[in-house]
């Protein structure tokens, strides 16, 4: 007996010494995995397909970058056909019948439902200072949106926004608001890594905006909702759910971030230095996704710059190029979406989704949207899949008397398709919104005008 057990033990011990020790999970990662599993249980899903591996092109599940394999499901849902098969022929039918159908599908299956009633937010200007940005004197206000938590005081939500307007403006100004970071506020756990500091060779986007006489703002997404699954019982989602886990069709972080942006817009409506009818929203990558959702949800946003939003944003879900549905359904990203979205990486296929990303763009109609991407190092976001969504929304814009991109042919790098109300450009840089700012501003100027200051 003794001999046998020793014989078993020795290889086990030597194995234990050789095996690489997996890095310990942080408590946030552990809680995230638990919540992800809980959602799978709720959905009665036992396994999810693996996402694409964007880091190792030799991996069996390496991300596909071969256009000839990118369209396994080439037929997209028709934004202008009702569920009963009838064609939508009038703007009235779009607004009264088809749009609500698409909204319901996105709410239930993709981004989750925003609660019918959300807590009130009381805005406080915590500081005001006059400063210079380049050669322009500006006034910067720091704002905190205190979310009413009287129904569940254990969860505290304070939305952080900074607003900068030209100091010498004589009329209320348009403002471009970015989902981003504000110096001085600590970066929360789970926040995405900051992109490497860009080599600034010209004016910053804020200075470009000021040159038009507009103002700019930043809203901190993590102050609304944490960027991980562990945080779903906190933030605005956790507050409304009184600290309980989500149901399968509850809202995810993208929609919650958009909700926060709408609350900032409520504040802008009360600030005399701002023309609240001319608020643009911009976000990059995961915040590009949130920008598209916010624009679709709140018709008060005048214009949007949706940068490198990729899968879960305005990239066609039915595409196999770069990031795919399975990546977004995994434990590190599922919190952006409704729990139900995970079904399409498990028992269901991408083609079972009742809607696709071109219909998210269509929900923004008739308001102007600029869709951007990069090239080198930005293949993951699938520029062509986003162009297809921009093109696929065209019929809705036209039905509403607006202009589409006037082409369905994917343009060469750095071609600005900005003559219509849906616009697109792929710049030749990497995963950054930077190089497309001048084109977005040129496009936006048609709608926001230019002000002297
Ligand atoms: C990851 C993720 C993307 C996301 C990006 C970001 O790459 O897969 O969906 O857009 O992070 O936000 O930087």
List keywords for this structure.
alpha/beta, disordered N terminus, binds alpha-D-glucopyranuronic acid
Count of helical regions: 12
SSE pattern, N- to C-terminal: HHHEEEEHEHHEHEHHEHHEH
The CATH homology group name: Alpha/Beta hydrolase fold, catalytic domain
Largest sheet at a glance?
A: 9 strands, mixed
- Tell me which ligands are bound: alpha-D-glucopyranuronic acid
Helix content: 25-40%
Classify the fold: give the CATH topology.
Rossmann fold
Uncertain residue ranges: 1-16
Strand percent estimate: 15-25%
Q: What's the rounded overall pLDDT mean? A: 94
Number of domains: 1
What's the total number of strands?
Answer: 9
The top level CATH class name: Alpha Beta
Class based on secondary structure composition and strand pairing: alpha/beta
**Rg of Cα set:** 23 Å
Reported CATH architecture? 3-Layer(aba) Sandwich
User: Globular, elongated, flat, extended or rod-shaped: what is the shape?
Assistant: globular
Strand order of the largest sheet: 1-2-3-5-4-6-7-8-9
Distance between the termini: 91 Å
What does this structure look like?
The structure is a single chain. By secondary structure, the protein is of the alpha/beta class. It has a single domain (108-192, 201-448), classed as Rossmann fold (3-Layer(aba) Sandwich). It has 12 helices and 9 strands. The chain has helices at 2-18, 27-42, 91-111, 205-211, 235-240, 253-268, 286-297, 325-329, 357-364, 383-392, 394-399, 437-448; strands at residues 121-133, 136-147, 158-166, 173-179, 215-219, 274-284, 303-307, 369-373, 422-426. It has a 9-stranded mixed sheet, sandwiched between helices. Strand 1 and strand 2 (136-147) form a beta hairpin. Helix 6 (253-268) crosses helix 7 (286-297). Residues 1-16 have low confidence and may be disordered. The structure holds alpha-D-glucopyranuronic acid (GCU). Alpha-D-glucopyranuronic acid is lined by residues 192, 285-286, 310-312, 323, 327, 380.
